[in-house]
Design a protein that fits this description.
By secondary structure, this protein is α/β, with parallel strands linked by helices. 44% of the residues lie in helices and 15% in strands. It contains six helices and four strands, in the order αβαβααβαβα. Strands 1-2 form a two-stranded parallel sheet. β1, α2 and β2 form a beta-alpha-beta unit. The termini are close together. 12% of the residues are buried. The model has no long low-confidence stretch (mean pLDDT 91).
C-alpha cells in the first residue's frame, strides 16, 4: 500500500459494539493500521468530540496534524470542528485525488 511506503501512519476509528468486532476484523485487515480505536472500548462514538480528543491524545499528535477520512458527513464535520483535517469519502477516485492534492501520495 502506497501510504505505508510513504511512511504515513494509519488508524481506524469505528463506531461498533463488542459483538460486531469480529465482523469488522473479517472485512478489514487490521494489520494495515498502526492504531485501532473502537467506540465500545472508548465509551463514546463519532461524531462526539470526545472520541477525536481521545484519538489525538493516544497517538500523541496534535489534532491539526491528523487527517480524518469518513463516509459520513456528520463525522467529517465533527472532526473539522474539533480541529482535525478531514475528508468526506465518497469514492476511491476522489480520495486518491484528495491525497495527491495534500501531497500524501
Amino acid at each position: 500500500m502506497q501510504l505505508k511506503k510513504n511512511d504515513v501512519q494509519m488508524g481506524i476509528l469505528s463506531n461498533t459494539v463488542a459483538v460486531m468486532q469480529y465482523v469488522v476484523e473479517e472485512l478489514i485487515s487490521m494489520s494495515l493500521f498502526d492504531h485501532r480505536f473502537l467506540s465500545y472500548e472508548i465509551g463514546v462514538e463519532k461524531p462526539d468530540e470526545e472520541i477525536f480528543k481521545y484519538v489525538a491524545d493516544k497517538i500523541h499528535h496534535m489534532k491539526e496534524e491528523i487527517l480524518f477520512v469518513d463516509d459520513r458527513q456528520s463525522n467529517v464535520d465533527a472532526a473539522k470542528n474539533f480541529g482535525m483535517k478531514a475528508i468526506h469519502f465518497t469514492d476511491s477516485f476522489n480520495l486518491i485525488k484528495d491525497f495527491k492534492d495534500m501531497k500524501i501520495l
